[in-house]
Design goal:
Number of strands: 0
Order of helices and strands: HHHHHHHHHHHHHHHHHHHHHHHH
Shape: globular
Number of helices: 24
């Protein structure tokens, strides 16, 4: 469940080093740009790290370790802060999701669920993709963590469905797995944007809007504003993924009969499967009722992992052997730290101010559209949706309103793109390293597809969105 191994060729270091040196040279040419020298150093290190993750001169975890070491030795980050990414709750939720997926696979509950899904929805690969997105949509209003929903619940089931078709990372990835994983991920970003309670940054957007403009973003208002472009995106995006990442197995109807035969051969559910199903249901219920009891999604996930260990569904060797979890912990934790330090150093605020000057004097609708585009692609510099909102939403919202955009429209549009912006990288939000870590797509494929699908999202949410928002009276 890990991406393809790195190529140790020294030439793979060339592009990352050129990017880092190039960023540093730009800082020398712009000494009065209002950006501190430390910020330029962090930007150069962050850019070098991201490009090295793409060229893979070393495995991702090793690249992150080098970046953490360099940040301290160069005096950019104190050692305590350099290790702060490993205390991030989302990072540890990702680890728990990998371990939970291992339990579902080991007990063969995932295999059984996969055959049931194939038997019910397996008339075509596209129908399977839509069934995963619809399951996500059904849970989203009550699950405020997209990592818990897409990574903890749907990922192990989707993985089991892919494996039931004989699709594994590597030579058989394109049989079914690559398509299903991309559909799960990009479908989840749309679903996350459609409800105030579907993802962590959404309530933060509502709070920043209330405190900054004294406007209340209600659950109903958010859902209504997202309904038009969201439904179009839910229909179109799986079709686009199907075209960009086509499964080689198109006619899956024979698999429905095979699934029925396999279920019959498996017989009734065994003790381990019932236990796994009970723990799975408990974690799901606790995630869905999080607003009532207030427990963290990460704490709930580790309750599930603890129960797996106590019931011997997993042993400690299983935990130690889950390489994908520990690899994701290392590289994602390192990126979370670097991205957070960029924000603390003031680079993101300087970027927001520069963008404000760019659209000064424009008609508000064109200015808001450009701000949304810039806001989306600025997420290359973030490893957290909440961090992106905290750093950039207030400035972009203030600029849009200052140019005449209706405050309610500006807040909601930026709120929707606070989820859609994670399409572009494999580290943009919690589910990304989990789904990428399954190994069905290379890093280059993930970034290429992510960029193309980000363009598709813009082509849907800008024209359809502005038209829908006009119809419902937001402007």
């Amino acid at each position: 469940m890990t991406p393809s191994p790195s190529d140790r060729s020294p030439w793979r270091w060339l592009l990352p080093l050129l990017v880092g040196v190039g960023t540093w040279l730009v800082s020398l040419m712009l000494p009065h740009a209002g950006i501190p020298a430390r910020s330029w150093g962090l930007l150069a290190l962050f850019a070098t790290t991201v490009v090295a993750l793409m060229t893979r001169p070393l495995p991702a975890g090793a690249v992150a370790l080098l970046a953490i070491t360099a940040s301290t030795l160069l005096g950019l980050v104190p050692v305590q802060d350099a290790l702060a990414g490993f205390s991030n709750a989302t990072v540890w939720l990702i680890v728990a999701a990998f371990l939970f997926a291992r339990g579902i696979v080991k007990t063969k509950l995932g295999e059984r669920l996969a055959y049931h899904i194939i038997r019910r929805f397996g008339g075509s690969s596209l129908r399977l993709g839509y069934s995963i997105v619809l399951a996500d949509l059904a849970m989203a209003p009550m699950t405020p963590s997209n990592t818990a929903r897409a990574g903890g619940i749907l990922f192990p089931i989707t993985l089991s469905v892919a494996r039931a078709f004989g699709s594994e990372p590597g030579a058989t990835a394109t049989v079914m797995g690559a398509f299903l994983m991309q559909t799960l991920y990009h479908g989840d970003l749309i679903v996350s944007s459609m409800f105030l309670t579907a993802c962590a940054p959404n309530p933060l957007v509502a709070e920043l809007t209330r405190s900054g403009a004294h406007l209340e973003l209600t659950w109903r208002m958010w859902a209504l504003a997202a309904l038009g472009p969201g439904l179009v995106a839910l229909v179109v995006v799986p079709l686009v993924v199907y075209g960009l990442c086509p499964p080689t197995l198109r006619d899956t109807r024979p698999a429905q009969q095979l699934a029925s035969e396999r279920l019959q051969a498996m017989g009734p559910m065994r003790r381990d499967e019932w236990l796994m199903l009970g723990i799975f249901a408990l974690v799901l219920i606790l995630w869905l009722t999080g607003e009532w009891h207030g427990a963290s999604p990460t704490a709930i996930a580790y309750l599930g992992v603890a129960l797996l260990l106590v019931t011997n569904l997993l042993d400690w060797q299983d935990v130690l052997s889950e390489k994908g979890a520990w690899d994701a912990l290392m590289w994602f934790g390192g990126l979370v730290m670097l991205a957070g330090q960029l924000d603390k150093a003031g680079l993101t605020k300087a970027f927001a101010v520069a963008t404000a000057h760019l659209v000064g004097g424009w008609p508000w609708w064109w200015a808001l559209a450009l701000l949304l585009v810039v806001y989306l692609y600025a997420h290359y510099a973030f490893a957290s949706l909440v961090a992106h909102v905290t750093a950039m939403f207030p400035a972009f919202f203030a600029v849009a309103v200052g140019l005449g955009a209706p405050p309610l429209l500006a807040a909601l549009a930026l709120g929707f793109f606070s989820n859609l912006n994670a399409a572009i990288t494999h580290y943009g939000t919690g589910p990304a390293p989990i789904i990428f870590g399954a190994g069905y797509l290379s890093l280059g494929q993930w970034w290429r597809l992510g960029f193309l699908l980000s363009v598709v999202q813009l082509l849907i949410w800008l024209p359809v969105g502005f038209l829908w928002w006009r119809v419902i009276g937001l402007w």
